[in-house]
Amino acid sequence: MKPDTQEPRMGKHPFRGLGVALVTPFHSDGSVDHEALAELVQFQIANGTDFLCVLGTTAETPCLSTEEKRAVIQTVKQANAGRLPLMLGAGGNHTAQVIEYLQTEDLEGFEAVLIVTPYYNRPTQEGLFRHFQAVAKASPLPVVLYNVPGRTGVNLTAATTLRIAQECPNVVAIKEASGNIAQIEEIVEHAPEGFDVLSGDDAITFELFTLGAQGVISVVANAYPAAFGRMAHAAMEGDFGEALKAHRLLSKVYKLMTTDGNPAGVKALLAVQGKIANVLRLPLVPAREETTEALKQEDERLKQLCGGC
Description:
By secondary structure, this protein is an alpha/beta fold. It has helices at residues 34-46, 66-80, 95-104, 125-138, 149-152, 158-167, 181-190, 205-211, 225-236, 240-249, 251-259, 264-272, 289-306, and strands spanning 17-21, 51-54, 86-89, 112-116, 143-147, 171-176, 196-199, 215-218. Helix 1 (34-46) runs parallel beside helix 2 (66-80).
């Protein structure tokens, strides 16, 4: 049943606290490693993650075929077995195609869809509003906006985000990865009740929690869910002193994760930990040797400090 845009905003959604944008592990031949993916899901569940994001940017989704995407979804759903809420990356830069996907694909097992701002064609703010308005009206699931201008070439401004939040009750949150603190603070301050800000940038997540963000969709938590989760949960409980300690524990890792781009950094780290092979699909390539070595040293340091966190 499609949402009626005239109805009040939905009640509490489950996407608060620590969310993880799952990587897609590959075998050395480039095929999807479903066993490693299932083990990563189990690792997240065992270490206190609150929800999972499937087929987001970190999953190298543009480099997966339709059948591979469906297989990844099935692997995650089977491994998760209904234990954590699931969010599905389902955006695109062609509004009609996004709507068709949402109305024809099997979305069973998911509780929201993550819809990125249209990339490459660089719509105006009015175009962005109409895109999300149309998608929200058509979506059978709640919608989480995703603003990441460094990848898409267009920024969803605070004014447009708030307009969408006010006029589209089926839109329940935004994953904000613009890095623009003033913009994010404006959204937090003026958002209607029931509309939340989720951090999309690990390095500034602590700061965003102090401003009123309600969650994060993390990359680093693929490898360190317990440590990053301590930061997120302490901050949400108002214990910013404890949250700051956890944040500082991972400060070097944040920088190394982005040195050679995402998901190259997190895949190198997961390979160091023995969880996946360090394989990406072109045009992405693995992190440089010096970055991988630095991540290895940092992982060893964290093992000594907190048993791997």
